[in-house]
């Protein structure tokens, strides 16, 4: 086993887990809505990107279009459907599941079973007998940037403070003059845009087909549940843990064991740490501060 | 209408043309005194048009409709217009079971075409056998199904791999690395790679099975680079695995690759941006790029009926010629009696298909296919590198299956007949 | 009057504020519908009966979720886990031992194994303080683990006894439901299988009605409404949740065995996310606090999906999605409770001599 292989594979896996989960984590962590149509939101982002690239847009522009399209869709769906379901967590799961069904089949009817794919840019990094796709490796810093950007938005901006206030205590926030409805809408749009970004980033390296969303779902849910209540910290930590486990087990025993190890880790983490990795970090912090 | 039971005299039919055959058969009909003209003919066409297998199933559905339309224009079967029962099973095997029962019990179909994956075939085969329903399975598949009611129209793994693997060994060397989808079909295909490697004095230096849900091939690509084979046999299946091609190109993995599962089924060379499929060699009985006049006429007719269609895959053509073949058999028998038609088909039949002149091996219910080695270049142009008729051999020669003599519903696997196919012995 | 009294006495154990349909009229209607269902195979034949049997066995799966989610407040995505465990167990036992007696015993053993699986998973979660939506996601992840694991068991090394697990392709040729020993065994196919499934469904329904309207049922509902307060009142909430979860596992297991014998087939797709979501859809649409709602919604939705699929229309899945969405948005309490409320309304307004409903539906 080559050490660089492992490093690159880790980077690849970390980015995948974080990007797959982040949109779901924002919507779930901030609003308590489990978006079972999350994978389809990603698919919409990928379609937006690929279709614009095929129409002649340069890839970065096409990606921006993909993100924008998904964000707009998120806005429309929030205003028409999701906002009716905020105090009905489980109903929102059924509704988003139905939305996923509609989106998948709708794209199939509109654009057929497949659309021409975009190729992966940026070539490869060669080292000895091995090489790795540069683009896939670069997804790691992109994932970190996304996390950093979210951190700034939710902790350093007026919007972020209002949004968090809304999440923690909607009634008090409303009493203090926060338009909570707008906060929910904005959060949902951000979550949708992040899903769209994931789709945009993976459009050149995965197969863009109507059913592609399902390939993100497992990692997304596992990461969210392993991460625990704090969205940013949780997603980062679970990306790190799950990415490592996947890379190591895949290398030692093969792809299947990588997947199974990841899922089993999730179960163990939930059992041992009912608040996920975030809960562990917080209890360690409390203990340190207590001494 | 007399049919020689020796099986040596085979009827020759033109599945694609038809005027001459049709006239001759009209004579047969009156001579046979069948009850034609009164009964209706219903064909069940259960192919996925939504869900995971829609990409593969839609061309199968289209080609079936084309074949039926052409038959109806020539007067249908036994003078009756052909009716269809054509639901959308949505790539759901549970629904396949329900629809198969409905087709047999409620719609009373005279013959059934259904399913893309082996999993689907195995799900509905017990229902088929229980009801003694004539069934055509048209996907290229792992092989070995010896079933009195099932006719396997696709090429088997031994036929597909048997055309491309020797070519690869001859041109690139003898060290093979196999990557295969981790399910029944992939495992058995990998077994066949080992058997064929042995027969061609090559060796499999690495083997990796990849779950169908995997989309990330970073470690697989590294493993291939580490093993440094002369060529890779890539037996990947489904939309997730299609991601492999962009990823290997982007990673700079340029070992030649042989396949029996890519391009001819999911037309990756049309969907992916060049040069993702550069230097991929496939062993198939059909790709729409076959340059013969007969095929190009067929392609024209297909796109005339379905101008927005994406591709004509291997399975689509198998549906097409087998529906025509069924029609000939029904005309020959003079009725749609399923037992009679099965008996008729078991005597063998020469078929003029878009791929070339091929024949039905009656006793094993499989086809001798005109197998070609197709090469995809860096601009995604397809060229034919090699061409030969390859019969089904596993059932007919190794196992000794004979459905004219014995009633059976078994699927045989290579591990029971070849030492090198048995992975547990290594 | 005497007959009426007997009737009232018989229905009492099944009635209470936790279920719909606490009137004489309801039970008369119930018996009429039941008679219709029993007669269905006679009117429509064995093929129609065997098609319908699938919907009925799914309804038992829906009931298993209703009792856990609707009455105890735990949304489990893992009912398909127990469904699948029982289905696979039944296949492995009956196909390895290949005798009528073994097939007979395979049913209770498989249901037992599903119950055991539910007990283990339930203990793991409820005694580990896993709560609320995390239970939902954890159960979903368990289903996905099994889906991933079973899908890769295609190799020849994955055999249990003489039966290959078959990976993605699943296990075909599972024997039909059989009762008896040797020559004296009866195999249930077609209409007989339908009647057996119907009997199992009715027994499950009535049993659950008695349960939720009994002492334990009130504890379940209390747990759903306020876990902490119930605990303070001296109830062991964890134990309540565990027992309900095990009961749900057993019902899902029963449904799973019936499923495996219905199509003589089971595959890892029963653990997949699509199939895992479907029971939640049935129950949410029917009304998650209504046992009857779950049954009606399951049968209607599945029948509807099958009809749409048979048309071959590419809009089938879109129509399914839109109908579900509409049901969730416009009938939040569930279709059956809404219908019940409407009926009660009508009756209250027009009935001059109504038999007083002693337990008004919630």
From TrEMBL, chain A:
Membrane topology classification: Multi-pass membrane protein
Cell compartments where the protein resides: Cell membrane
UniProt keyword Membrane, yes or no: yes
GO MF term set: transmembrane transporter activity
Gene Ontology terms: cellular component: plasma membrane
One annotated GO biological process: amino acid transport
Chain ranges passing through the membrane: 14-37, 57-77, 89-115, 135-154, 183-204, 216-237, 249-273
Keywords annotated in UniProt: Amino-acid transport, Cell membrane, Membrane, Transmembrane, Transmembrane helix, Transport
Superkingdom assignment: Archaea
UniProt record similarity statement: Belongs to the binding-protein-dependent transport system permease family. LivHM subfamily.
Protein name: Branched-chain amino acid ABC transporter permease
Organism (species): Halarchaeum rubridurum
Automatic annotation (TrEMBL), chain B:
Leucine-binding protein domain sequence ranges: 40-379
Gene3D superfamilies in the cross-refs: 3.40.50.2300
Superkingdom: Archaea
Swiss-Prot/TrEMBL keywords: Signal
InterPro entries in the cross-refs: Leu-bd, Peripla_BP_I, TAT_signal, Urea_ABC_transptr_substrate-bd
One Pfam family this sequence matches: Peripla_BP_6
Annotated PANTHER family: ALIPHATIC AMIDASE EXPRESSION-REGULATING PROTEIN (PTHR47628:SF1), PTHR47628
Protein name stated in the entry: Branched-chain amino acid transport system substrate-binding protein
Protein species of origin: Halarchaeum rubridurum
UniProtKB/TrEMBL annotation, chain C:
Keywords: Cell membrane, Membrane, Transmembrane, Transmembrane helix
Location in the cell: Cell membrane
InterPro entries according to UniProt: ABC_transp_permease, LivM-like
Pfam families the UniProt entry points to: BPD_transp_2 (PF02653)
A single Gene Ontology CC term: plasma membrane
Entry keyword Signal: no
Molecular function terms from GO: branched-chain amino acid transmembrane transporter activity
Residues annotated as transmembrane: 25-45, 52-71, 77-93, 105-127, 133-151, 193-212, 242-259, 265-284, 314-331
Membrane topology: Multi-pass membrane protein
Cell membrane among keywords: yes
Chief location: membrane
Protein's name according to its UniProt entry: Branched-chain amino acid ABC transporter permease
Organism: Halarchaeum rubridurum
């Amino acid at each position: 086993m080559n050490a660089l292989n492992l490093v690159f594979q880790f980077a690849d896996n970390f980015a995948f887990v974080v990007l797959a989960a982040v949109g779901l984590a924002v919507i779930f962590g901030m609003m308590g809505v489990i978006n079972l149509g999350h994978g389809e939101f990603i698919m919409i982002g990928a379609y937006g990107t690929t279709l614009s690239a095929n129409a002649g847009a340069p890839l970065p522009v096409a990606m921006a279009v993909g993100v924008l399209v998904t964000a707009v869709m998120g806005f429309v769906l929030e205003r028409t459907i999701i906002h009716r379901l905020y105090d009905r967590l489980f109903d929102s799961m059924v509704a988003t599941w139905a939305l996923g069904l509609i989106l998948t089949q709708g794209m199939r009817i509109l654009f057929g079973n497949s659309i021409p794919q975009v190729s992966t840019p940026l070539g490869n990094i060669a080292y000895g007998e091995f090489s790795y796709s540069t683009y896939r490796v670069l997804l790691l810093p992109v994932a970190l940037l996304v996390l950093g950007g979210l951190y700034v938005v939710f902790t350093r901006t007026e919007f972020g403070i209002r949004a968090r206030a809304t999440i923690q205590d909607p009634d008090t926030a409303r009493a203090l003059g926060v338009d909570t409805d707008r906060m929910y809408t904005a959060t949902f749009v951000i979550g949708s845009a992040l899903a769209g970004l994931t789709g945009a980033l993976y459009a050149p390296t995965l197969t863009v087909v109507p059913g592609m969303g399902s390939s993100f779902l497992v990692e997304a849910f596992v990461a969210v549940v392993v991460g625990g209540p704090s969205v940013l910290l949780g997603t980062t930590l679970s990306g790190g843990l799950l990415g490592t486990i996947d890379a190591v087990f895949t290398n030692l025993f093969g792809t299947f064991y990588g997947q199974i190890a990841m899922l089993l880790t999730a179960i163990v983490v939930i059992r041992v740490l009912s608040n996920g990795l975030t809960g562990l970090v917080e209890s360690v912090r409390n203990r340190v501060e207590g001494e | 209408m007399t049919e020689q039971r020796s099986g040596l005299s085979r009827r020759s039919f033109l599945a694609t043309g038809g005027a001459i055959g049709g006239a001759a058969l009209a004579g047969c009909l009156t001579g046979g005194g069948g009850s034609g003209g009164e009964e209706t003919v219903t064909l069940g066409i259960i192919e996925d048009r939504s869900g995971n297998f829609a990409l593969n199933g839609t061309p199968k559905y289209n080609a079936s409709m084309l074949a039926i339309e052409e038959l109806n224009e020539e007067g249908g079967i036994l003078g009756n217009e052909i009716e269809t029962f054509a639901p959308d099973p949505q790539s759901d095997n549970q629904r396949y079971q329900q629809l198969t029962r409905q087709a047999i019990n409620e719609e009373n179909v005279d013959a059934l075409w259904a399913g893309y994956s082996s999993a689907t075939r195995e799900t509905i085969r017990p229902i088929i056998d229980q009801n003694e329903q004539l069934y055509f399975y048209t996907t290229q598949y792992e092989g070995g199904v010896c079933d009195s009611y099932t006719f396997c129209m696709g090429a088997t793994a031994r036929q597909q791999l048997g055309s491309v693997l020797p070519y690869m060994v001859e041109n690139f060397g003898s060290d093979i690395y196999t990557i295969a989808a981790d399910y029944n079909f992939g495992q058995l295909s990998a077994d066949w790679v080992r058997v064929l490697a042995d027969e061609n004095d090559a060796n499999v230096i690495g083997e990796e099975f990849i779950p169908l849900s995997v989309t990330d091939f970073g470690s697989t690509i590294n493993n291939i680079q580490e093993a440094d084979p002369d060529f890779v046999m890539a037996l990947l299946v489904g939309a997730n695995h299609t991601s492999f091609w962009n990823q290997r190109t982007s990673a700079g993995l340029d070992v030649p690759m042989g396949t029996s599962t890519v391009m001819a089924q999911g037309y990756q060379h049309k969907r992916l941006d060049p040069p993702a499929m550069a230097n991929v060699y496939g062993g198939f009985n059909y790709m729409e790029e076959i340059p013969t006049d007969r095929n190009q006429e067929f392609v024209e007719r297909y796109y005339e009926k379905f101008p927005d269609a994406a591709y004509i895959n291997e399975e689509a053509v198998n549906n097409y010629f087998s529906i025509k073949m069924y029609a000939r058999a029904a005309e020959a028998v003079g009725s749609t009696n399923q037992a009679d038609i099965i008996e008729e088909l078991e005597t063998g039949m020469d078929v003029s298909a878009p791929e070339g002149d091929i024949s039905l091996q009656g006793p094993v219910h499989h086809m001798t296919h005109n197998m070609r080695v197709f090469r995809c270049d860096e601009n995604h142009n397809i060229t034919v590198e090699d061409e030969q008729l390859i019969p089904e051999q596993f059932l007919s020669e190794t196992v000794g299956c004979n459905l004219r003599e014995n009633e059976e519903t078994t699927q045989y696997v290579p591990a029971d007949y070849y030492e090198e196919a048995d992975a547990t012995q290594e | 009057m005497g007959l009426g009294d007997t009737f009232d006495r018989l229905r009492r154990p099944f009635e209470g504020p936790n279920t719909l349909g606490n009137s004489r009229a309801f039970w008369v209607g119930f018996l009429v519908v039941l008679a219709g269902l029993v007669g269905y195979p006679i009117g429509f034949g064995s093929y129609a009966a065997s098609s319908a049997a699938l919907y009925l066995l799914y309804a038992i799966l829906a009931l298993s979720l209703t009792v856990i989610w609707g009455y105890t407040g735990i949304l489990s995505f893992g009912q398909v886990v127990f469904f699948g465990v029982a289905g696979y167990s039944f296949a492995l036992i009956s196909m390895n031992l290949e005798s009528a007696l073994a097939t007979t015993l395979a049913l209770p053993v498989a249901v037992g194994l599903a119950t055991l699986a539910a007990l283990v998973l339930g203990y793991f979660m409820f005694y580990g303080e896993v709560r609320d939506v995390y239970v939902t996601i954890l159960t979903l992840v368990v289903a996905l683990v099994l889906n991933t694991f079973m899908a890769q068991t295609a190799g020849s090394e994955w055999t249990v006894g003489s039966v290959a697990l078959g990976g993605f392709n699943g296990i075909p040729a599972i024997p039909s439901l059989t009762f008896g020993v040797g020559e004296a065994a009866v195999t249930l196919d077609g209409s007989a299988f339908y009647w057996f499934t119907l009997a199992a469904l009715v027994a499950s329904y009535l049993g659950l009605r008695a349960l939720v309207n009994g002492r334990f049922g009130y504890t379940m509902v209390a747990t759903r409404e306020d876990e902490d307060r119930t605990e303070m009142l001296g109830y062991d909430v964890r134990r309540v949740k565990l027992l309900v979860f095990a009961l749900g596992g057993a019902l899902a297991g029963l449904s799973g065995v019936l499923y495996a014998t219905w199509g003589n087939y089971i595959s890892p797709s029963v653990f997949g996310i699509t199939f895992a979501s479907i029971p939640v859809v049935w129950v949410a649409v029917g009304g998650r606090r209504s046992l009857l709602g779950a049954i009606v919604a399951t049968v209607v939705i599945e029948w509807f999906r099958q009809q749409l699929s048979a048309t071959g229309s590419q809009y089938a899945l879109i129509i399914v999605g839109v109908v579900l969405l509409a049901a969730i948005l416009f009938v939040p309490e569930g279709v059956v409770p809404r219908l019940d409320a409407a009926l009660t309304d009508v009756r209250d307004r027009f009935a001059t001599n109504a038999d007083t409903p002693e337990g008004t539906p919630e």
